[in-house]
Structures are given as C-alpha cells and as structure tokens.
Amino acid sequence: MTDVVGDRLLGLDLGTSVVKAALFDASGRELAVVRSATPSTSPAPLWSETDMAQTWTLAAAACRLLLQQSGTEASRVAAVGLPGNMVGAWLVDAAGAPVRAAILWNDGRTQPLIDRMQGEDPELMERIYHTSGSVMQQGCTLPLLRWLSEHEPETLARAASVLCCKDWIAYRLTGTLQVDPTEATVMPGDARSRTYSDAMVDLFALSEWRRLFPPVRHSESLAGFLHAEAAAATGLRAGTPVAVGAGDVPASALGLGAGEAGVACTLLGTNILNCLVSAEPLFAPTGVGLLFCLPGNRWLRAMVNVAGTTSLDWFVEQFCAAERAAAPSREALYAGLEQLAHQSAPGANGVLFLPYLSALGITTPFWEPAARAEFFGLTDRHTRGDLLRALYEGIALSIRDGYAVQPVPVHEIRLSGGGARSAFWSQMIADSTGCPVVVPAGAEFGAKGAALLAGVAIGWYKTVEDAVHKTAGVERRFWPDPGRKELYDRLYTVYRQLQHDLRPAWRAAAKAAAP
Q: With a cut of 70, which residues of the chain have pLDDT below it?
C-alpha cells in the first residue's frame, strides 16, 4: 500500500481502434470518458501494425483531455490502471525506443509459418493448447517473434525487450518494464503457472531471444510512479501510482463484475468473447477457445468470434450510403439501422448469416482459419432489412454457439461492448441464448477493470474480488421471450448444420485462391 492522494481512479484503455480514458470513484461509478481513434496500417496483405510513438501521444492526449473536459484537478487522481489490446509484438531497444512499428494481435502474417510448423509437427497445436489452454492465433507474440527471426533478424538484434500494448504505455509513464500474467500466458505461455513457458519458447526456436521477455508481475501490483516527463505529457501529477494492469479482455471481465467462479460475460465489440470465470484453469473442450488468467487467482475461459461489431460496420459501409449521409451522428445512424432491421420479422424471413468476416477465420466452435461469412437462404423477395436483421441474429447465434461449448452451463450473461448499448440486440441475445442478459451500469468496462486493479494496488480494496464485489452495478435486464426462443432454437439447428457442411468448401476455396 502507498500513501494515497486523491479520490479518483483513472483507467487508460488502449484498444485496437480506440483509446479511452475514464475516471471512476471508489464505488466504481463512471464519472467521465474521452475517446479517440487509434489508426493502424496494413503494409502488406494480412499485416496489421501501428506506430508506437503515436500510440503514446494519443494516450497522453486522452489523459489531458479527460482532466480538462471533466474539470478534474490532477491531484484528485489517486492511481492509474492500464488495460490494452493483447499480445502482438511491441519491441523496444536498450534506450526504451521503439525498434519498429508494433505488430498487432489481429495480424495474419504468420499463417504460412504456422502451416509449415504444423507440417513438420502435426501435434503442434495440441502441444500449444495443452500448455496455454488457448488456440493460438496468428498475432500471438511467439509466432510473431519467430517470423521476425526469419524475416527481420536485424530487428530482433536491435531489440532489448518485447512488450504488449499496455506495457509500452506503462513504460512511458513510469520507466519500468514488465508484463502481467494475462499477457504472458497467451503468448502462448503456461496457464497453470500463470507465466511464460520455456517449453513454448523452445517450440518456436526462440531460446536465443529469451532475453527479450521482461519480468512477469501481478496485475494488481504497482508498476511504478509517474515520472516528470510523463506528468508533463499527460497533465497528471508526478508521482501518481501506476498499476501493472491487465489485457483488455480480463480487465473488461472484472469491470463487468465477473470476478467470481461461475459468472458469465460476453464482450460484444470488435470481436466477441463469450467468457466464463473459473477457480481453476479449464482446458475443455479441447482445441477451441482461449484461456486467460484473471487477476485475483481466477481464470477466464473464452470462446471467440473474431468478427463482432465489425460485421455491422461492414454492412453499413457497403449497403447504407444513404443512411450514413443523412444521419447527424453515429448514434442516430445505428438507431436508424435498428428501425430498418425491425421491418423484417424475427428469423429474417428465412435468411441466415454466418458471421465469419475476419480473414483470420474462427476459433469457436472449432478452429478453422479458412472459415468465411455467408448469407444463406436468399431469394429475390428478400430485402436489405432482411439481410440486416439476419446479420444481427447471426451474431446473436454465434454467442449462443460460444456458450454451447463451455464446460459449465450458463444461467445469466453479463453483456458489454458497443453491442450492449442496443436494447434491440440485447433482447435478441436473450431470446437466442435462452439466458437473461444483464447490462451493467457504465460503458468503459476495460478501463473500469484496470482502474479497480489500481485501486487494489494502492489499498483502496483488500483484494481483486473485494474490488469487483463493491463496484458491480446493473443498469438493465433482458428476459428471454419463450416464443422467439423457440424460433431461434430451430434456426440454430440450421446454423450448426451450415457450419458443418461448409467447412470442406471453406478449405477448398482457400486452397483454390492460394498463389
């Protein structure tokens, strides 16, 4: 515990596309939020990168703007918590300067490498899963480092440390280098011991580069204190405590109130994570989903669809030019879209949508990098409203899919993310899953979860569980409608059949399109 100055906690959430800074009081009430876009680039097909210096500039600016717009004196901020988009490769040299652009979690450049490694070792994915509990995605840290060792060895030769996004910002705030268990275990690492895995490092032939990995420190511990240069950049008080923090997924779960074993939560954002808190690491079902360490000595089993609200954004971009031009705000645009979807009856007049728009494929209910999205059942009588409703419903059914393969039945779902702001979609998720849906109070749950970790670090709360228990709140509840639930049960049967039948076609299409 440190001497506490101030009565507010600041959560600085470094998302893939948006940086968010938010203030909270000790009860967990969200007091103020600012958001700004974080650009990324794609220098080559399937690549996803971002400028590290720009990420820091945007993060610092978000802090300054938050204090200014909320009228908050810097002295009122007791501590800072950091969540961020996870894994990837954020490399710095011995002076702490970026070595190259950061490679993000949604980068797909390593797929040929992974295919080659699997050809050499057919049990590769099984080995990784047995240790990490997660299906490894292309943008995880170890495969990216292996790719760099083969294609940019000079980059690794110049590097002194490999960080994750939030840890880069922690370094700029405090001058300390570390990662936390939520990141170390999905690089991939060891979910049981909650740290790196030397066996995984060796599996990727990276023992030469083991020196790049910084110490692993608890999420709810202090990374350090804000130094003078960072204070000038952020507008915060020099000496403000900064917690180590956690990846955005575990931090969001805590912010949603999912701190105890058995609690389920869905993060409906850029991608969709359907999560279950457990008191021990769960490895079932094998070969699908992700396993995160949750601060407080818990684990978070997550089933993922890597195309969430991006599916809706894609539809708007491709088919809703008139609505985009006429809407006075983003909120008005999406409210208008819901009205368009309402013109189609539940079931979208027979149209089904498989929401696999990501070039990375899917990891739930099975791992299939070749998976692609489909509208199924179209005739010349169908309208744009039918397609839009089918898109909403397809994502809702993918959430049901995520919980269908969880090893423990789910009886209530805590919902967050951009999709949770929609009562229309929240009700549809309740109807599709048959579970009551709870939307907690607030909006920025990743920032809140990290702020709570900062509160634990400075002694505001006794434990992580204590922090979650004292700050959980409910804004809205949605109960399943029995009639619509029966309809979605029938549609889900067709949805699952399509998954099964299309899998060979997805693979054949990927092979046909290969150079």
A: 1-3
